[in-house]
Write a structure and sequence with these properties.
Blueprint (H helix, E strand, L loop, with lengths): L15 E4 H5 L3 H8 L4 E4 L3 H14 L5 E5 L5 E2 L10 H4 L2 H4 L8 H30 L1 H4 L7 H6 L4 E2 L4 H7 L2 E5 L3 E3 L3 E4 L6 E2 L2 E4 L5 H6 L5 H8 L13 E2 L2 E5 L9 H17 L7 H19 L7 H5 L2
Parallel strand pairs: 1-10, 2-3, 2-10, 3-6, 4-5
Antiparallel strand pairs: 7-8, 8-9, 11-12
């Protein structure tokens, strides 16, 4: 849940404020009834927010348009590309990994990544051009200021629901950009506007703090500090699974990727071999050294520091 100044948060609002986690836990029938006949504001601009906005539009139409309030534009892509070629064929395969520099890659792999890097950049520009044209982003003022490639490397890519922008044209979904907001009795006070945005229900599709879940596993402050590591770096997990200073704990699924199912499956296989005794873990210093190397390479690719998703998750 985002943080607000005193008397500016949900406590000042006479309507209802929920997180998207609460909404998606409802069954379909209950969710439709919950939305019906309400003026709704959805905060966020990634998949959860867009999906919920579409359901609000279906429930209330033009009678009570749904407002989608966001801070940052994203390359939310259609679920297909020209000629019917899925995006996954270009970015989620072994060849695409040859285009990225990584630790311990050797001279040949390093040379291939350098030679092929223009190809990766060129295709990302092609994707940007197609998305802007297909979704008419300039018309709605939602062209992202950062590149598609940077967002892809930061694992912030999501698909946009079919006909989402048709609903914006229709008027059943209203897009509103705001760097910040607060609550008042009638609804939401948007930064720079004098009149409040009157609303009955606010759904915060502002993401999740995964590192807090890891921290809350432990009662011990020492282990809480261990699991989080440095404030300026990602949670230190060797092979994105094992914490060097808590080797009895394996974490699968915390680290983000564009295709979580594939990478989680590979990690499970690696963990199974570790438990079977096929290999043993390096010592603590060697694991921490390896983690630091990978963190540096990931920062080069994404242009971000610790957990690139975190800022967007607080307020998308």
């Amino acid at each position: 849940m985002p943080e607000f100044p005193p008397n500016k948060g949900p406590e000042a609002f006479h309507g209802k404020v929920i997180h998207s986690m609460e909404y998606v836990a409802m069954d379909y029938k209950s969710a439709a009834e919950f939305l019906k006949g309400k003026r709704i504001t959805v905060v966020g601009f990634q998949k959860n927010a867009l999906d919920i906005a579409m359901e609000c539009s279906a429930a209330n139409g033009l009678e009570f348009p749904c407002t989608v309030m966001y801070k940052t534009e994203h390359w939310n892509v259609p679920d297909y590309l020209p000629w019917g070629v899925p995006l996954a064929y270009f970015y989620l395969n072994r060849f695409s990994e040859l285009l990225v520099h990584k630790p311990g890659e050797g001279i040949l792999l390093s040379l291939l990544a350098t030679l092929f890097s223009p190809l990766r950049w060129a295709f990302s520009k092609f994707v940007e051009s197609h998305i802007k044209h297909k979704l008419r982003l300039a018309k709605y003022g939602t062209v992202p200021k950062h590149s598609f490639l940077k967002e892809l490397n930061s694992c912030l890519i999501a698909t946009v629901p079919e006909k989402f922008y048709d609903k914006v044209d229709e008027g059943s979904i209203i897009l509103k950009k705001s760097p910040s907001f607060s609550f008042c009795e009638e609804g939401i006070l948007v930064n720079g506007e004098t009149e409040p945005l009157k609303t009955d229900l606010v759904i915060l599709a502002t993401g999740f703090r995964g590192e807090k879940k890891l921290k809350d596993i432990f009662v011990s402050q020492t282990f809480q500090d261990y699991i989080l590591g440095s404030p300026k770096e990602a949670v230190p997990l060797y092979r994105e699974i094992i914490h060097p200073r808590i080797p009895q704990l394996a974490v699968v699924g915390f680290s983000e990727s564009v295709a979580n199912l594939y990478t989680s499956e590979v990690r499970c296989q690696w963990l199974a071999e570790l438990l079977y005794g096929t290999f043993i873990l390096p010592n603590i210093k060697e694991m921490e050294k390896d983690i630091k190397k990978w963190d540096e390479f990931m920062k080069q690719s994404s242009g971000h520091g610790k957990e690139p998703q975190e800022e967007e998750r607080i307020f998308c």
